[in-house]
Amino acid sequence: MANRILMAVCILIFSISFVGCASRVFALARVDAAAANASFIHEMPIEAGIEGLPPIVQTPVIPSRNAGLFPNWHEIFVDFITNLETEAAAMNNVVVPDNGDYIEEEYTEEEEQIVVGHIAITFDDGPHPTLTPVLLDALYARDVRVTFFLLGMEVDRYPDIVARMYEEGHLIGNHSFGHPSFTRISRQGIIDEIYRTNRSIEAITGTAPTTLRPPYGARNNMVLDVAREMDMSVVLWSVDPRDWSLRDAQRVRDHIIDHAIDGSVVLLHDIHESSIEAAIMAVDILIEQGFKLVTVEELFEINAMTLQAGEMYRSIYHTIGGTE
Ligand code: ZN
The pTM is what? Predict the structure, then answer.
């Protein structure tokens, strides 16, 4: 009888412990199934204050997220608790609660964070003195990284913004110095445009860009040859909402949402207010839909591809050789 009373007291104590630890334990499931399982096994008893518990608690196995989004998480949790309870009873001094309903809310939150694909949003023609910082604020608040294809002449005017882009983890690419069409200037002209811009950016960030987006996307074999010689890959885009012409945030946003898929590269310009608005709205929707927004370099890396000098890319599905 005394034992029963002791158990009741313990139930109360450990109920409180489990409520406190539930979010932390399940938040770890983000990593991967094996790591989540290991953390779950390791941390649950510690969090519950049962550090000396033998390895019987290794029974629960959290399934891979890909294998059905934890459809049976509740059973697993109850199994775990049951095992823990059995073991605890054997130790004659601890009892744990047998219901895990209070973590259901945490699980729902986890479910929303499952990544359905990766998209790279890119911004050309900046930095802009007032609009780019607004965009950077919004991206920072959302923990989102993008790619900026900068104009050398604007880099020289607004170095602080370039430094901030770099510090906040965005990828910086080269969009020429003064925005000429590369198919209308000489070979030496192309070299100068790329070189000057790379030096301007490098002077600020310490790193020269390795991605090039020629103005207007204009390119020919000479442009690709120069890019190869200068160790630059040419990154175009697969989704073009024509933001510079529409100047309508809602329509630009809708175009992005309707066309962007896993592996897409989206073209925008951070020199128009409507484009910034559209970008922020699109980012929120894409995140809500489960997309993760990444830089172009990351986009290819995630898909086991490396951007090669002198090659041209539109998206992970559309890589164009130097002979187009
Ligand atoms: Zn441009």
Answer: 0.67
Measured in Å, residue 134 CA sits from the centre of ligand 1 at 20
Name the residue among 300, 316, 319, 315 with its Cα closest to residue 238. 315
Same domain (yes/no): 256, 288: yes
Instruction: Name which of 178, 148, 144, 185 is nearest 165 in CA terms.
Output: 148
Do 305 and 184 have their domain in common?
Answer: yes
**pLDDT, tens digit, for every residue of 272-315?**
999 999 999 999 999 999 999 999 999 999 999 999 999 999 99
Domain containing 106 equals: 2-112
Same domain? 154 vs 268: yes
Residues 167 and 302 in one domain: yes
Give burial (CB, 10 Å; 0-12/13-18/19+) of 226.
buried
Ligand 1 centre to CA of 214 (Å) is: 8
Shared domain for 204 and 106, answered yes or no, is no
Q: Is 79 a catalytic residue?
A: no
Q: Which of 51, 83, 112 is the last residue of a domain?
A: 112
Q: How far is CA 180 from CA 111, 173, 269, 304, in A?
A: 47, 16, 16, 33
- Determine which one of 124, 125, 243, 270 is catalytic: 124
Say whether the peptide bond before residue 60 is cis (omega within 30 degrees of 0).
no
Q: Angle at CA 144, nearest 5°, toward 143 and 146?
A: 150
Catalytic residue from among 175, 255, 269, 272: 269
Is 175 among the residues known to form the active site? Answer: no
Instruction: Using the mean position of ligand 1's atoms as its centre, give its distance from the Cα of residue 281 in Å.
Output: 22
